Amino acid sequence: MTSQLAARGRRAATLLGALSVLLTVLSGCSTSSPVPQEPELSTAAERAVDAAWVQTGPQSGGYGRGPVSSAPASLYATAWTLRLALDNGELPRGLDRKRCVGWLTQIATSPGTGDPALTQLDNLALAVQGLRSLGATVPTSRIAANTEKLRSGSLYRGSPTTTPNWSDTYTAVHIISQISARIPDEVRDGISNRYARSTDNGWNEDINSSIPVWQSATLILPRADRQKHAKALHDLVDAVWKHGTSGPADGFKIGTLADVRSLALQNGTTVPNIPASWFSSLQDSTGMLALRARYGPDPHTTAKAMELGYRAASSLQRFITAYVLPTGWPSVPRPMPDPQDSYYGLALTRSWGDSAREAALAALTQQWVTHLKGTASATLVKNSSNAFYVAALARLLGVPFPKSLAYRIHAALEEQALKATPTNPLPIYWAARFALLNQHPLKRALRSRIAQLAPRAPVDVASVMAFSEVAKADSDPAMGHTAETLAGQLKLGAAYRSQKSVNQTDLLSTAIGLAAAHATSTERLKSIQSFVSGDRACILPLTTPRNSCDLNTRYLSLAAERDIDYPINPHD
Question: For this UniProt entry, which residues form the secretion signal (predicted)?
Answer without folding.
Answer: 1-27
